[in-house]
Amino acid sequence: MLYHLLYPFHTEFSVLNVTRYITFRTAAASMFALAMSLALGPLIVRKLREFQIGQVIRQEGPTSHRKKAGTPTMGGLLILTASLVPTLLWADLTNSYIWIAVVTTAAFGAVGFADDYLKIVRRSHHGLRPLYKMGWQIVIALGVGLVLLYLATKGDYSTRLIFPFFKRLIPDLGWVYVILAGIVLVSSSNTVNLTDGLDGLAISTFAIAAATFTALAYVTGHRVFADYLALVRFPQSAELTVFCGALVGASLGFLWFNSYPAEIFMGDVGSLALGGALGIVAILIKQELLLVIVGGVFVIEGLSVIIQVASFKTTGQRVFRMAPLHHHFEQIGWSEPKIITRFVIVAIVFALFSLTTLKLR
User: Fold this and answer.
1) Is the pLDDT of residue 336 over 80?
2) What is the mean pLDDT of residues 280-296?
3) Alpha-carbon distance 203 to 275, whole Å?
4) CA triple 348-288-210, angle to 5 deg
5) Are 271 and 201 in contact (CB under 8 A)?
6) Closest of 101, 53, 96 to residue 267, by C-alpha
7) Taking each helix axis from N to C terminus, what angle separates 240-258 and 22-50, rounded to the nearest 10 degrees?
8) CA distance 177 to 95
9) Distance in angstroms (rounded) separating the CA atoms of residues 294 and 194
10) How far apart are CA 54 and CA 123, in angstroms?
11) Is 214 buried (19+), middle (13-18) or exposed (0-12) by CB count in 10 A?
């Protein structure tokens, strides 16, 4: 909105010419999101406490977590507000990719909100029934896939799939791409949700992944960089840099209150939305498979649950002391801050490696 209000006056006030640069608007959105998070955070924490919207701890979880019962939850509302508002202020709202990213993120957040709301009302860690929760995620994801397929028929998108490390392996999936988009979005959303189990763990690793996608979105939409790196380029995707920058700023602001010991938890309204945001950005900039590397920590957390369930159902034995993986390390004696710090280090390594794959192609 500010972009559309300010840029038309660049002929009268030359300083406003900077608003046409994506780098400037990304920095502005990021700083605005950070400031918004820090400003609204204390108010939201206080209001959540007043309304007694506190975290319900499941009994089968680590016993050390029981002291966290009652900590304000649904902090994802702060993340969503602090990321989507700056995006709408500084992004080019005529860009269809921005609206797809914003609506997808909000839609996954709505599913998470319903889940959190039911947990609070019932005073139980059981929210939406798994069938309904997963069902709505699939509906949203397939809906996004159909929209993208429609854009592909108009030449505004591509259903080709890029493989990391292979410059010429770019198959066109056609209508099958709808299914791929669905898998990417649902998987991304749920793995971030599984990672949200320790103070600051999910939001810190998410911030690293979002920062990585900020760089990837920029080079994908940049003509010179995209040609040099042999990327499938759509000029519209460059605007997603603003969206990613806002996510980074909002994440850092939320981490201020969510760092150990946490004053507020993001809840499913935050984790499902953030996972959806990562997934839709990866899809729109044609880095669907690279998401596995960028979000390596989330993938490992998700795989640990799959392995644990599969092993227990087939052999009756558990591979890990507890899943997701961060709980396993708690059970073997690692302190919560140590687990968080080491997971952040691993997330940084994955992020750096994902960026090198562009040149290795």
Assistant:
1) yes
2) 95
3) 11
4) 35
5) no
6) 53
7) 30
8) 22
9) 16
10) 9
11) buried
The C-alpha angle 188, 189, 194, rounded to 5 degrees, equals 95
Whether 60 has a pLDDT exceeding 60, the answer reads: no
* Residues 238-248 as b or e (16 or more Cβ within 10 Å = b): bbbbbbbbbbb
Per-residue confidence at 172, pLDDT binned at 50, 70, 90? Answer: confident
User: What tokens were used for 49?
Assistant: 């406490």
* Confidence band for 2, pLDDT divided at 50, 70 and 90: confident
Distance CA 145, CA 36 (A): 32
| pTM, to two decimals | 0.93
Residue keyed to tokens 């490696």 = 353
Structure tokens at 140: 């949203």
Each residue of 184-211: b (16+ CB within 10 Å) or e? bbbbbbbbbbbbbbbbbbbbbbbbbbbb
Stretch 170-191: mean pLDDT: 94
